[in-house]
Amino acid sequence: MTALAALKDVFTRNLRQSGIYIAFVAIIGLFAVLTDGLLLSPDNLTNVVLQYSYILILATGMVIVIIAGHIDLSVGSVVALTGATSAIVVIQNGGPWWAGVLAALAVGLLVGAWQGFWVAFVGIPAFIVTLAGMLLFRGLTLQVLDNISLSPFPAAYQKIAGGFLNGFFGGNGYDVFTLVVFALGAVAYGVSQFRTRQGRLRYKQSVESFPLFILRLVLVAAVVMAFAWQLANSRGLPIVLIILGVLIMTYTVVTTKTVFGRHVYAIGGNLSAAQLSGVKVKKVNFWIFVNMGLLSAIAGIVYSSRSNGAQPAAGNMFELDAIAACFIGGASTTGGVGRVTGAMVGGLIMAVMSNGMSLMGVDQSVQQIVKGLVLLLAVAFDIFNKRRAGAAR
């Protein structure tokens, strides 16, 4: 296969996944021009990471829910409830910061188990269960906080979302440690991709030509190191980015390399076939929602840390941003399709659009209109691809 033919195969084999990366680069380029380069400035890129990290954490769990053919409308309320729990433990009762974190995680797990029970074992559709949960957990948040805000958190808790790791290796105006961490990440990605390529070759699967493969790795490494350079020239490596990176790597492995991940795709792709194949559907569905509760708690901790307090209205509309990130990133409305990395790109597209329009001074109402249209077009594209695939058969 020639390099040109391989390149064409890469883009046509999965137009949706290829298209989302092209769209991401195009959107970054557009807003970089419209903001006179301010979008890509070191301080602004750092702020984008800090401001939208909790949405990306939610999207990591939400994409698994959507792949299985469900939806979760309660995550914004769970973010508020877990943040409120942490505030009660740390601010109101004077507990250590880590006790607040553990309490929030415990509440998130309980919430996930509660909703997983109704979905998996009672058989109520997830849409209804989580819609009820959205109301229930928002009401509990109001009761826990007694309808008032609590602040501030101690400095150690604030560092979860606002802290940085820097200065370990020195640097002249930039942080060498940040560059080293990202360089190691780029190398690890290259090794992982090489092993994946070798595995496909062993099973006689089609892969791109070796020169094209190397070119792709070089481009990815260049983008990663350019991003690292900007962070290194600002405040260094955000702690929340480390948390997010660990979650992305963990859930990428879970969804692509484990039995649980294969069962999630099987349930979303064809429920009847999954049941006939021996997949324990109830058990898998239960743990999907337990996992979503856990990740909602992590997002709640990060959000309360960044906002330095807990508010009754915290997390409002977060569920819609997380769902939009998944669909824009390639998840299918009918289940069985989606990737963690795709959801991350979808979330970053929303983040770049919001940040870019804010830098341009675009009114908030117009921003909502634009994001709504982008979501609509993403879903329409998904439907168009399905119809075209069906016609091809």
Notes on the protein architecture:
GO terms for molecular function: transmembrane transporter activity. It is a multi-pass membrane protein. This is Xylose transport system permease protein XylH. Pfam families: BPD_transp_2 (PF02653). The protein has 393 residues and is an all-alpha fold. The protein has 2 domains: 3-166 and 260-392, ABC transporter involved in vitamin B12 uptake, BtuC, CATH 1.10.3470; 167-234. The protein has 16 helices and 2 strands. The protein has helices at 3-13, 15-34, 42-67, 75-92, 97-122, 126-145, 155-162, 176-202, 210-232, 239-257, 259-269, 271-276, 281-307, 318-328, 340-359, 364-392, and strands at residues 164-165, 237-238. Strands 1-2 form a two-stranded antiparallel ribbon. α3 packs parallel to α10. The relative contact order is 0.19.
Order of helices and strands: HHHHHHHEHHEHHHHHHH
What is the count of β-strands? 2
Quaternary structure classification: single chain
- How large is the radius of gyration? 21 Å
Question: What percentage of residues falls in helices of 4 or more residues?
Answer: over 70%
- Strand pairing plus helix content: what structural class? mainly alpha
CATH architecture of the largest domain: Orthogonal Bundle
Which class of the largest domain in CATH terms? Mainly Alpha
Q: What's the story with the biggest beta sheet?
A: 2 strands, antiparallel
